[in-house]
Amino acid sequence: MTGLFFQWPLPYFVEPTQGFGERPELYGPDLPGHDGIDLPAAFGTIVLAPFAGRVFETEAQARYGHRHNYGIHVRVEAEIGATKGSSGRVYQVALGHLASCCVEPGQMVAAGQVVGLVGNTGRVWPAPASDNPTAGTHLHLSLRCAGYGAAGWPFDLVDPAPFFKELKWGARVRENGQIS
Ligand SMILES: [Zn+2]
Fold it and tell me: What confidence category does residue 174 fall into, taking pLDDT thresholds of 50, 70 and 90?
């Protein structure tokens, strides 16, 4: 789908440190590579909902007592592009490794609404340590499009980059994990 752009999830632009499909050796065999984009940001930076929708899920490891790879994360889901007579596509964005989230499942959020704060919960590298409690801090963003996942990817995952006009290189989708 061309011309569909989402709200940038941070209050300023940063170049991603890792793109979709990179480092297959780290994520296989379950995934063909990194399942989203990583954005560097200072611990505590506000995280913004990329589009208006319903909070599908939040997860705080302290509350549930186990560690999801994304740590504390928020998922927002919305049907986008519906017209009279035809349904749109259902997108779900995940924002991971948060320090905290400030929305609840089922809640409606606006595009650009603050949903949490950047952190380093879950599986991050380097792992936080007592002498460096903010090590590994970044925002992970992954995107699913129900029924329209990228070829070879599970869970309807797609490359988020083309959906953010800030990413000038976003059009260069890397099907094979290589930067073209
Ligand atoms: Zn990531």
Answer: very low
68 CA distance to ligand 1 middle (Å): 13
Give the chain's domains with CATH numbers. Answer: 24-164 (2.70.70.10)
The rounded Å distance from CA 55 to ligand 1 centre is 20
Q: What is the 38 CA–ligand 1 centroid distance (Å)?
A: 5
Q: Tell me the pTM.
A: 0.88
Is the dihedral angle over the CA atoms 39, 13, 43, 96 positive or is it negative? negative
Q: What's at 122, amino acid-wise? A: G
Tens-place pLDDT, residues 26-84: 888 889 999 999 999 999 999 999 999 999 988 765 444 556 889 999 999 999 999 99
Q: How many CB atoms lie within 10 A of CB 24?
A: 14
